[in-house]
Amino acid sequence: MKIPEELFLFVEKAQRLETSAFWDWATSRRGESDMEKIVQGNWLAHDGLNQDALDAFCLNLRFLIQDRDGFSIRKIADITGTWEDRFSPQRKAIREARDKLHQELKGKAFVQFKDNGEMTNEELFQIVFYGGIVHANPKKRKDFTTLTTAGAFSYFVFQSFLEVLFFYRNCIQTIAFHISKYIKAHESSAARS
After folding, report:
1. Could you tell me if 46 and 30 are in contact, meaning their C-beta atoms sit under 8 angstroms apart?
2. What is the DSSP secondary structure assignment for residue 108, as one 8-state letter?
3. Closest C-alpha among 103, 121, 101 to residue 163
């Protein structure tokens, strides 16, 4: 049985996220944020943060969360759903990772700015991600600009967005790990044949 190319692409992009300059920054000890610049409207004035690295990370993440390219988290779930029964532990782990991500995205965002109800992590992510980082969606751009130029409040917007990136990363790395186990098992079987 041929291993679908989408599985290799997913693992490749997951690895790029994990080894990216932005992820290294996000998971390393760093100095203080420049609150003066943040208050003046530079929401990304954090010690050592490179906006190009953030943009590159998010563009790679987009491959894994949008269905266009055929290897998004959702599309991979469809593919893994067809795996043989001997891979049911991997299927289960992938399903649980997706379920956990969905649960975290439905959770209340750390920052709130809506007049009517609570903002979820997913709503905040959508505004930041699609309103100005990977797209400039007109429906989200105004909220993006409001959130990212809100002085000290924008510091907390970035921290909340970073938290959601961790949610996505954890899900993606879990899925990539189990895909890798599947690929390795298939390659071992093919080598023995």
Report:
1. yes
2. B
3. 121
Half-sphere exposure of residue 16: CA atoms within 13 angstroms, side-chain side:
17
Based on the number of CB atoms within 10 Å of its own CB, is 145 exposed (0-12), middle (13-18) or buried (19 or more)?
middle
Amino acid at 192: R
Q: How many CA atoms lie within 13 A of 123 on its CB side?
A: 15
Across the chain, the runs of DSSP E, i.e. the strands, are none
Per residue in 112-122, pLDDT tens?
887 777 899 99
Delimit the domains of the chain by residue range.
5-192
Q: Report residue 160 as tokens.
A: 């909340």
Q: Which helix (H) or strand (E) holds 131?
A: none
CA pair distance 54, 90, nearest whole angstrom = 31
What's the pTM? 0.92
